[in-house]
Amino acid sequence: xxxxxxxxxxxxxxxxxxxxxxxxxxxxxxxxxxxxxxxxxxxxxxxxxxxxxxxxxxxxxxxxxxxxxxxxxxxxxxxxxxxxxxxxxxxxxxxxxxxxxxxxxxxxxxxxxxxxxxxxxxxxxxxxxxxxxxxxxxxxxxxxxxxxxxxxxxxxxxxxxxxxxxxxxxxxxxxxxxxxxxxxxxxxxxxxxxxxxxxxxxxxxxxxxxxxxxxxxxxxxxxxxxxxxxxxxxxxxxxxxxxxxxxxxxxxxxxxxxxxxxxxxxxxxxxxxxxxxxxxxxxxxxxxxxxxxxxxx
Amino acid sequence: xxxxxxxxxxxxxxxxxxxxxxxxxxxxxxxxxxxxxxxxxxxxxxxxxxxxxxxxxxxxxxxxxxxxxxxxxxxxxxxxxxxxxxxxxxxxxxxxxxxxxxxxxxxxxxxxxxxxxxxxxxxxxxxxxxxxxxxxxxxxxxxxxxxxxxxxxxxxxxxxxxxxxxxxxxxxxxxxxxxxxxxxxxxxxxxxxxxxxxxxxxxxxxxxxxxxxxxxxxxxxxxxxxxxxxxxxxxxxxxxxxxxxxxxxxxxxxxxxxxxxxxxxxxxxxxxxxxxxxxxxxxxxxxxxxxxxxxxxxxxxxxxxxxxxxxxxxxxxxxxxxxxxxxxxxxxxxxxxxxxxxxxxxxxxxxxxxxxxxxxxxxxxxxxxxxxxxxxxxxxxxxxxxxxxxxxxxxxxxxxxxxxxxxxxx
Lengths: 297, 410
Ligand SMILES: Nc1ncnc2c1ncn2[C@@H]1O[C@H](COP(=O)(O)OP(=O)(O)O)[C@@H](O)[C@H]1O
Ligand SMILES: [Mg+2]
Hints:
- Chain A is mostly helical.
- Chain A has two domains: 15-76; 83-291, MetI-like (MetI-like fold), CATH 1.10.3720.10.
- Chain A is built from eleven helices and no strands.
- The radius of gyration of chain A is 25 Å and the shape is flat.
- By secondary structure, chain B is α+β, with helices and mostly antiparallel strands.
- Chain B has two domains: 4-224, P-loop containing nucleotide triphosphate hydrolases (Rossmann fold), CATH 3.40.50.300; 229-407, no CATH class.
- In chain B, 26% of the residues lie in helices and 30% in strands.
- Chain B has twelve helices and 20 strands.
- In chain B, the strands form four sheets. Chain B has a six-stranded mixed sheet with strand order 6-7-8-3-9-10, sandwiched between helices.
- Chain B is elongated and about 75 Å long.
- The interface between A and B is medium-sized, with 27 and 31 residues.
- The structure holds adenosine-5'-diphosphate (ADP) and magnesium ion.
- Adenosine-5'-diphosphate is lined by residues 13, 15, 17, 19, 37, 39-45 of chain B.
């Protein structure tokens, strides 16, 4: 991991002169151009969705979203004010938030604590328990739906937000523990021992050493879990009562009721898309290479 | 600061590997003791048991008189400098050094004062706000030292702290560690496989082989009175030449007979070794250090003080000339110690270096004024007063009859 750290690391061909430098420059430039094109192609549908959500529904039949370039007058906030007035959409948007945020936080917290324990704390049967966790990875969600529905009715939490959250946490944890345990295990043992010599308890080591150093893995896990739960339809459809429906379920219902209802779907979908995008942008700064640089050696 | 006592300490790892056996060492308050030995001999294991990072499976460890076998590292109040430095990569130099104090809830103002003082002592003042990744190897090493000294612990434990530095920096940091320890007077245990580091730093040096303490003594004693072939060969560079000889009595005392050549043991050597009598007429191992051999044409050729050999290789070092020659003598083949020394001395190794046709290869340090050339037959003047004699079957040094060699200078 240290190899990615300093700029003093020599890689590949050495710069031999102006020609070599031009080659280096152009190959970097070509890569950048390529990535830019890919990013643009990726962004076009998103941009289209945004524009569509801002168009007057009456104009939908006249052509695609690119019409706004010639007819800017088609743009309006009417769709958004409509869906914001619609209680179903706003409350299901909030439901999505109420489900996603705790389901993500719990998975990240429990996953990193368990990952730390599996990687660094000696306890009897540790590796067997970890094998069980790995085994859970391959259990498909679908086979758990019916037993869990029964379990929830025994527990008396059927249809509640808690029931949806718990299901997401339970099925998010095996992967979270697997990923974080393996990442944490890569932290040099000397660091843990140095902290132990410095007087740190296991708890301190977790919070002061493992969490900060595990941030790249924790951030990626957090984002994936967030996206998974935010976009989930199946689990919510099975477990959430109508008043606890998240946005995905509500949007799906809209299509069924009205046939084509782009004026609701487009802004709804965009709302549903923009939050994960913000989350991603906020967390991407934790994806850093070489966090371990300078530590050992 | 405290004394550290190892009382029959031993370690068997969970997988059954025996790493340390019956280690008995008393380290005085403020003393600097170096554990030295070839890699894999159990030095790190011993140090980690003292640190509390490894359980002690046998014996008793006392720090400051208190038995600490079952005390966790954070309550032993010792600081460790790791071979890898083990700096916290996400913390600045300031936070790295202050981490131990912060964990002990030292008030902010005092913490800052102590961190600054430690940094000043190590020349790290300007780097306090940098991250470890932006430091050079030498600076990282200093931060690791700073983290240890800032806590003012009972003892410092250092595991090959200089092995990741280049040769020049290593010499400089070695001197600094020595000075620092003298200033702070903190009990220090320092682990290394480098006998030069051991000799220059230690008040006493403990030579360990395969988990067993061979000898613990002041550096000069270790050099002058090695208790066995292993210590003799391990301490000193290039290492001691070992040759098989028959010990013969004559009217002046004893002669070490190599076959075609022989060396007369001077009265002082004989007087210091009452046990020689028991070896008379038997084969022994004779140890001659390279620095006790010189070019006969410069130092003078005297009967009973001269060996003869053919030059195989000449390495001019400026200060002296390292000359490899083959002499007509036998090497003690079947001693286990020698095989191990041969493994350890990959560079300029003599004890087990392959022998060029017929004779045995020995290494000598000639005066730089010597003009010997490869292929030449030379007479080698031996300072026989410095000769060492070991038992051929056990490898133990021949000293007093009654004292078993391994306990001789403990
Ligand atoms: N965790 C461990 N489990 C089993 N054997 C070990 C372990 N650590 C070290 N050893 C073994 O113990 C012996 C001593 O190792 P070590 O103390 O690291 O030697 P040194 O530091 O002198 O090079 C070696 O044979 C090594 O293979
Ligand atoms: Mg070691």
